[in-house]
User: Fold this.
Amino acid sequence: MRIIQTRSAPNPRRVRIFLAEKQITVPLEDVDLAAGAVRTPEFTALNPMQRVPVLILDDGTAISESVAICRYFEELQPEPALFGRGAVGCATVEMWNRRVELGLFAAVTHVFRHLHPKMSHREVPQVAAWGEANKTKVVEMLALLDAELAGRPFIAGQDYSIADITALVAVDFMKVARLEKPDNLANLARWHSAVSARASAQA
Ligand SMILES: N[C@@H](CCC(=O)N[C@@H](CS)C(=O)NCC(=O)O)C(=O)O
Assistant:
């Protein structure tokens, strides 16, 4: 088993943090996105979406999509539960992970992909107006999360979950996307300090 990934990219980091929380070690094989590693016929055969990470099982099965990879490991090793517990708990984690993924993570990556000069040959066409529009969406979603975090320690409730991983990686990737973190969101700042202090954040 191995994971094809890129150290600096945000989606592989989600998987690395998830594995660190579960204390699972999987060999990592780094590829260079800037050099077009995901556009080769060999890589495209593994993931036609031409994106990392990709988990390769020992029988050759290739699983991509960060959340799908995380679900595979949750099934193999349920503890600690990072997708929630019970019908309501699992649905609540799913709800928040999707909200964070679609509302924050995607918005931050749109800003990066559509405005950063180094993405001009990988995001074609680069639409600057779309990048700019997503800056507002990022700020609005951070404010929403700040209000939610006034009433609980973690994004989806009392327990750390994959929703916290998605949010942490999105917030940290704001720096790469050249987005400034609002300094008036005290609950979000408290949450960010807590999740960043976990050993898994270094993965
Ligand atoms: N929905 C996918 C997104 C994967 C993705 O966008 N990966 C980026 C790196 S974070 C990538 O491979 N980009 C290749 C490129 O831009 O050429 C997931 O959740 O894994």
